[in-house]
Design goal:
alpha+beta, Alpha-Beta Plaits, three-stranded antiparallel beta sheet, 11 strands, elongated
């Protein structure tokens, strides 16, 4: 890179605020950015998450209304034309709770969330697994427990959590469980339960 010491700096001023120095080259302009600028900008956006959907991008107004409804600490929602959503929270604690509480689904579509960091590149990574909701029917009441439902759901994928009604046990027609599955996996239509005796034998 050409040293700027032999070139005359061009000072850019807006009002009376000095914004920095430009060093002109033949085909580009180099901008001097200080660490103080980075720190000040990062402070403003530290309680922000960047997200995108695996699949079709839902309308912005629907996403904005949905996240404000389920996450009461949301301050602002923004979006880009290439499918990224920026969600600003009231504080970092609220942000961490949302990140740790995932995965999250919107109209059955998983949304990938990551904390905004300095220099974060906006690109959608390839995913090999995805969380989905499944309904488990004809479950014996004896298996309507955390261990029982987890054992059954593991026949589909990795169990993550139950919905509120399943957890409360107030609807026995079916259990609704969120499981992590391989993106291209063929899901089974039936799960065979093999009961063992008290001695552990089938």
């Amino acid at each position: 890179m050409q040293s700027p010491s032999n070139q005359k700096p061009i000072l850019l001023r807006v009002s009376t605020t000095h914004l920095g120095r430009y060093y002109a080259t033949s085909n580009r302009t180099n901008r001097m950015v200080t660490s103080q600028m980075i720190q000040a900008g990062s402070k403003r956006w530290e309680a922000m998450t960047v997200g995108y959907f695996l699949g079709r991008k839902p309308p912005f107004h629907q996403v904005s209304a949905y996240v404000r409804f389920i996450w009461h600490s949301v301050k602002d929602v923004m979006a880009t034309v290439n499918g990224f959503f920026f969600i600003q929270f009231a504080n970092c604690v609220a942000l961490e709770e949302v990140i740790d509480g995932g995965p999250w689904l919107f109209q059955g579509q998983p949304i990938v969330l990551q904390k905004r960091t300095s220099g974060l590149a906006l690109r959608k990574h390839g995913h090999t697994q995805v969380p989905i909701w499944v309904k488990l029917r004809h479950i014996p009441v004896e298996l309507w427990t955390t261990d029982g439902l987890s054992t059954i759901a593991s026949g589909i994928g990795r169990p993550l959590y139950r919905d509120a009604i399943t957890k409360a046990g107030t609807r026995l027609d079916f259990a609704r469980v969120c499981v992590m599955v391989d993106f291209n996996a063929t899901l089974p239509k039936h799960i065979v339960m093999i009961f063992s005796g008290e001695d552990g034998n089938e």
